[in-house]
Write a structure and sequence with these properties.
By secondary structure, this protein is α/β, with parallel strands linked by helices. The chain has 2 domains: 235 residues, Aspartate Aminotransferase, domain 2, CATH 3.40.640.10; 124 residues, Aspartate Aminotransferase, domain 1 (Alpha-Beta Complex). The protein is globular. The two termini are 19 Å apart.
Length: 377
């Protein structure tokens, strides 16, 4: 039996057509017709005015911070319960990430704690230059509350939709609601360009500015002239070709991941103490990863016991994100905690969720999972 991965790339024939065309026409460098077409697809899908494809989601966050004027010693409020790449770019700018814990419903940034963090940081005479909110595992954050707070204090929002392409909040696509949105097309995401990301916004001037500085900030003259620092962050035409094909099957990929979520939920309904993240009202979740929580009465560190057992059977699973405020690299950063993300980390587990999993794969995961609990197969 081959290894069952958590979320591996799912590539078909559509992608091959665009990649082969790039080779035939010798468009193998950054920029090109695939890049232009891919950006148009994303703009239309998210219903935003402008899009810039980039080499990674991290590059997109870094550019967003630069565009919003984040400076050395500024404060950026970051969701603590997420992958470190959401906060690392703050350090690239010489600014200070300040972490905000999650609320129970969506596992995303807690609006009440966010307000407290802003007020206290301002009392310390810190300039709060941006808020980075994440739609974790494809579940939309409480954006109405977050947007209201951001408007009240006049702080721009970077909307990290790296895990949430295809998810919606009150029928608005995730990534389209903040001042700037970011996407990731890493190999484990719902669609991939092998590696890549995007910056999206309804502020067209902002994206045009990003377009310049992402390509080494070269001035439009016949020789190489640079008046400011630039970055080499553009997506290659080959990778964009993969993205074009992936966009054509995005809705199919989302539908399959939602099917997988429902499959697990039905199969584990008889195991008391195993619960699934719910889909909040007025949202649509892409179910990038199926996540579960395991009640501690079933055993302390049960999630790790399950992970190790599955790993012994060549099945990849993963604990939920370890909160960033508990990461050594961020030990000197302020944090506003309520214990939610720490609890989720202690009890949570991500199950294999890739859209290319077969029915046999899923049955194998369920079989091995139920063995741990002594349940009939």
């Amino acid at each position: 039996m081959s290894r069952i991965w958590l979320s591996s790339p799912h590539i078909g024939e559509k992608e091959r057509v665009y990649v082969e065309d790039a080779f035939k026409t010798n468009w193998v460098a950054p920029l090109g017709p695939n890049v232009t077409a891919f950006e148009k697809q994303l703009t239309a899908y998210l219903n935003v005015k402008s899009c810039l494809s980039l080499s990674s989601g991290s590059a997109a966050i870094h550019l967003a911070l630069q565009l919003l004027g984040v400076k050395s010693d500024d404060v950026v409020l970051c969701q603590s319960f997420t992958f470190a790449a959401s906060a690392f770019p703050v350090l690239y700018c010489g600014a200070r990430p300040v972490f905000v814990d999650s609320e129970r419903t969506t596992w995303n940034i807690d609006p009440q704690l966010l307000r407290e963090a802003i007020i206290e940081q301002q009392r310390k005479n810190k300039k709060v230059s941006a808020i980075i909110v994440v739609h974790l595992y494809g579940i939309p954050a409480k954006m109405n509350e977050v947007l209201s707070i951001a408007k009240e204090f006049n702080i721009p929002i970077i909307e990290d939709a790296a895990e949430a392409l295809g998810s919606t909040y009150h029928q608005k696509p995730c990534g389209s609601m903040g001042d700037v949105g970011i996407l990731s097309f890493n190999g484990n995401k719902i669609i991939t360009t092998s590696g890549g990301g995007a910056l999206v916004s309804n502020n067209e001037a902002l994206i045009e500015r990003a377009r310049k500085i992402s390509a080494q900030a070269r001035e439009p003259v016949a020789y190489y002239l640079h008046n400011e620092v630039g970055f080499n962050y553009r997506l290659s035409n080959i990778c964009a070709g993969i993205g074009r094909g992936q966009m054509e099957v995005l809705n199919e990929r989302i539908a399959r991941r939602r099917e997988i979520f429902e499959f697990y939920k039905k199969e584990f309904q008889d195991i008391d103490g195993v619960t699934f993240s719910e889909e909040p009202a007025n949202t649509f979740c892409n179910r990038w990863l199926t996540t579960i929580l395991i009640d501690e009465r079933l055993g302390k560190n049960k999630n790790e016991e399950i992970r190790l057992h599955l790993e012994s059977k060549d099945i990849e699973s993963r604990q939920l994100w370890k909160p960033l405020h508990d990461q050594p690299v961020f030990k000197d950063c302020d944090a506003y905690e309520n214990g939610v993300s720490a609890d989720l980390f202690q009890r949570g587990l991500c199950l294999p969720s890739g859209s290319n999993l077969t029915e046999e794969d899923l049955k194998t995961v369920v079989y091995e999972f139920k063995k741990i609990f002594g349940r009939p197969i």
